[in-house]
């Protein structure tokens, strides 16, 4: 048919990483995916939400500590110091790339939710054999266990182990759990659309993390509004 927008479900999309950091993310995720996931179902992931939420919120104090001028965002200079203190050995360029990848609102600063995503990506990259100079831990056991859970959840969703979650994979994961209830498919699609920010039909680990911070309400500080009912 040759649909211009390429919305055909049958055509397998090929993920084209636009930046070095995205390519690195896909590679790291593929490597991790080859080790399999300890998650058994989508429900086991959801059951872990409260614990993950709690642990992520604890790193607010880390965030505040590194936001030296207390303006609510960590800028690149502050981030460099942060990495130094945490013994995360990234090059200037790597820090810059990571920073830009996570600065989704383009304000040249890491807000709390962006910072969490950034740290989680650092965690993911720590196994990279070509980045062995990176110290093996971030040095925060609780947080690392939480990050591992998030990685594990993503690996569970990524059935074909290509480093991304497609719409079909999302639907499959949710249907496995709810054994064919009609509404579950719709929920899966909705969840997927929430995650796929750039609308390219694929969810990267970064998108997954950002969606996650929204699901557990970590980005609500952004507009300082109480969660009102609605969208
Ligand atoms: Ca700051
Ligand atoms: Ca930002
Ligand atoms: Ca996949």
From TrEMBL:
Keyword Manganese: no
Domain EF-hand: 54-89, 90-125, 145-180, 183-218
SUPFAM superfamilies registered for this protein in UniProt: EF-hand
Sample GO molecular function, one term: calcium ion binding
Top-rank taxon, per record: Eukaryota
Keywords from the named record: Calcium
Protein name: EF-hand domain-containing protein
Species assigned in the record: Acacia crassicarpa
Lineage: Eukaryota, Viridiplantae, Streptophyta, Embryophyta, Tracheophyta
